[in-house]
Design goal:
Number of strands of chain A: 23
CATH architecture of the largest domain in chain A: 2-Layer Sandwich
Number of domains of chain A: 3
Shape of chain A: globular
Structural class of chain A: alpha+beta
Largest interface: A-B, 64 and 66 residues
Oligomer: homodimer
Distance between the termini of chain A: 43 Å
Number of helices of chain A: 14
Strand content of chain A: 25-35%
CATH topology of the largest domain in chain A: BirA Bifunctional Protein, domain 2
CATH superfamily of the largest domain in chain A: Bira Bifunctional Protein, Domain 2
CATH class of the largest domain in chain A: Alpha Beta
Strand order of the largest sheet of chain A: 3-7-8-14-11-10-9
Largest sheet of chain A: 7 strands, mixed
Chain lengths: 495, 495
């Protein structure tokens, strides 16, 4: 082996512990698995998404985009800049609106007459166009979505994918004839986000709405899917907003109904960002590196042949046959037949990169017409027959997915605890992290008391119809102030 | 019908003439076919790409992306901002480099220490990362591509898709062990661009290289595909640059070869933008509106049922069966069964929107087990049997594609003329537009003489191996100065 191999081997392993140094471990996995690099000097808060990281985004994007298209959404593209006066128009909707954005002040050598914001989100530029396009009830519902990058000039510490000044996302914007239709849309998109988390990323989520004071500015209701991270914090996985008529009023979206009467439209917006990749990496990976569900893994099965000089030809031919069978069946398979690396090195490398299933093929396997199968998440090893190898591969990939989901689900279930007093909330989150559910009167001040002491907040309130303790039938008192509780609140520390 | 229908009908038709008012006609088609709107006030040069326009981009993108992935390209994503000092580093490569870009000077309420350019192209930020990623010959070739938007602050008049301050494109960046490998890459990408123009957009192109003085700054060779527009001007359809070692030198891309010797890499970059949509719309459309090849048309076949009250049920059932058969076979089909529009209105609307094939289905067709088929480009009408309707649809779609390509090819062939003197070049382009090919000595001054008088320039020089009149065997004298010619130059007016 050349010097390079030595260097590469030294660099290969993850050195930090997921359990004890979660933040450092995460940063190391992201870099060593080749998912992302930090941005250039002078651009803190930006990242470079490398091919292995971007491939994950492409798979998530493709799954979500297909769901959108199946349910009446069309993609479009709006300018990345928004005139300052357009952003200002949102001040009519939201008092104290003060966007932290990147400002373009010069074009070429000229100073611009009006500053342009690099879009932090596009309601204020998309809604005026929807207003032009909607005239009659026949134009509704109108649904547009764009996949793009947005910039938010937050000064907080960068965490690749979780918190970056520029991030990739989709933002959907719709207009509807009435409140119910807009609400149905809001929930449909939340369902789709939930499904991407659970069925594609193998991450169970909690769903509900944000407290009044934590809604998207101008929204009637902000709904959210929340995912639990291994350090006990909650990540806001994606949000879907029922905007009511506030944006329609500010930007004049009206339509003539079937009786030729002028009506105000109801709008929604909903967004899903590459933060989902952060949750993916954080949830499943371990001290050996990245762990991926087969749904998004660029390589699902890696075949590592194990040979001596006299067995090489037979082993390789046998491995190639298996590779071809899998590839023909649409399994994303790679045969790692590099001469310059030994099997142990290859095992480590593919574990670091999160390949869900490894096939080990040596002379014994070749002679016996078998394959040794190893699962990435837990190292479970078994032997399968060469005959029916495609079905076996598929079933092992399904097993790996099921294991990852079950693990995450078990963790989540164990991390939702109940509390009935302020001290119990503080003590439980302080000791265990995770979610604490408690009866709540709905008053922002009660949340503030917890927030001040522990940096934990109400991340989610279950929907009325999914919460049997809501409303007038709520038997409990608010855990913080002791007044009558009206909702159940989930407290957690957040990203 | 309601008032809306009246309004819509008035707005529906294209009023300008392609032949006599090409620019105005183009702008009208883009807007009335719902492809794009102009940007907000204060943002001249920006457009809003509407769903029907974006759907075209998605199909082109998907075709090109598949070609890239089949040939070793991986997608990635780099920050949209580039520090001024990084852009400045290109000054080492190119004298007088003065990018006309949008400058971000403020983040939130703070002035930035260093201005950030919104990327006009990403060599200066991507190359330093490639430099980090490449260490050994085993890392080569390294190929990354990104699909993104870029901004160039040109003050010239906007033409949707052809010339916009922000545009969507892909930019590929590769590093190679040697010059030949980089050249092969350059040509492979040019081949793929040519194939997208010809096989997807039904637009024949000319291919060759740009004259020395019109290369991409820092490039060894800039190759191009050029498409002829109906007003006789040439559009640079896409470019692929052999960058030699200039960027590798400026940004230090070196690798250790098989003998552990340090070597300089050779790089390429190549880009394809939504200008291709401009060429698509301009080439095939007519005074009735948009014309699209079936390859990119969002709807390939529209079925317009024609009924009276007593035949409606039978006609509709028959039409639905045909719709279902086509949809099951993967044909993008739409049954326009709106009650509120008459068939004539529907014909006009789908013609305006460029649906390649129309099926007309009335009581006669239903009784006789037939379908009347109409081709969008030329109105050609025929009758096909209900049996085998899927094959018939496919064959008619192929015919429409072939017609569009043949028309464009015939036009192009008629618009390449030869000239052997400066006056002949000027006279020929002045009178006919199109391309004039002429022997050329290679001197920039000879082009300048033509450019000064006619705003025509050398858009392309055929490659040596595709040009039998090149080099020492060139018999002719330069059409402009009379010195010995070394190449053949294609002069044209440009977009």
């Amino acid at each position: 082996m050349s010097d390079d191999d030595g260097d590469a081997e030294q660099e290969l392993g993850v050195t930090k512990s997921k359990e004890y140094e979660t933040g450092e471990w995460y940063a190391e996995v992201v870099q060593k698995a080749g998912l992302a690099n930090y941005g250039p000097e002078g651009m803190s808060g930006f990242i470079v998404t490398r091919p292995r990281g971007y491939a994950l985004w492409e798979r998530v994007q493709s799954a979500l985009d297909a769901k959108f298209k199946d349910t009446g959404v069309q993609n479009a593209y709006f300018p990345m800049f928004i005139p300052e006066s357009y952003l200002e128009a949102e001040k009519d909707i939201v008092e104290g609106f003060d966007p932290e954005v990147a400002w373009v002040t010069h074009g070429g050598h000229e100073e611009l007459e009006e500053r342009l914001a690099v879009r932090p989100t596009s309601e204020s530029i998309i809604t005026p166009y929807i207003s032009q396009w909607v005239r009659s009830h026949r134009d509704l519902p109108l649904r547009v979505n764009q996949w793009c990058s947005v910039v938010r000039w937050e000064a907080t510490e960068t965490k690749p994918f979780f918190r970056t000044k520029e991030f990739l996302w989709q933002e959907g914007h719709t207009a509807h004839a009435d409140r119910d239709d807009a609400w149905e849309e809001t929930m449909l998109r939340l369902d789709q986000y939930e499904s991407v988390y659970e069925d594609v990323l193998a991450i169970p989520v909690l769903r509900g709405q944000k407290p009044e004071h934590d809604k998207f500015p101008g929204a009637d209701t902000t709904t959210t899917v929340e995912a639990l991270m291994p350090d006990g914090k909650s990540v806001q996985g994606a949000t879907s907003h029922h905007l009511g008529t506030s944006f329609a009023e500010a930007f004049d979206i009206t339509y003539s109904d079937e009786d030729e009467e002028e009506q105000l439209a109801h709008t929604t917006s909903w967004g899903f960002s590459w933060r989902a990749l952060g949750a993916l990496i954080m949830t499943h990976s371990d001290d050996q590196g990245l762990v991926l569900p087969p749904t998004v893994a660029p390589t699902q099965v890696v075949i590592v042949p194990i040979w001596q000089a006299d067995t090489k030809a037979d082993v390789l031919e046998y491995a190639e046959g298996i590779r071809d069978d899998l590839a023909d069946a649409g399994v994303r398979v790679e045969l790692d037949d590099r001469d310059t690396r030994n099997p142990g090195f290859k095992f480590n490398e593919h574990e670091l990169n999160g390949v869900p299933v490894r096939f080990e093929i040596g002379p014994h396997e070749e002679e016996d017409g078998e394959v040794t199968v190893v699962h990435r998440p837990d190292g479970e090893q078994s032997t399968v027959d060469r005959d029916g190898i495609v079905d076996a591969a598929r079933s092992h990939l399904d097993e790996v997915f099921a294991k990852l989901y079950a693990d995450a689900e078990e963790t989540l279930e164990g991390e939702v605890r109940e509390a009935s007093s302020r001290n119990e909330i503080l003590g439980t989150i302080g000791q265990h992290g995770g979610y604490v559910k408690a009866p709540w009167c709905g008053d922002e001040d009660c949340e503030a008391e917890v927030k001040d002491q522990l940096a934990a907040e109400i991340v989610m309130v279950p929907f009325a119809d999914e919460d049997d303790r809501r409303g007038d039938d709520h038997d409990d008192d608010c855990a913080v102030c002791g007044d009558r509780a009206t909702r159940t609140a989930y407290f957690a520390k957040t990203y």
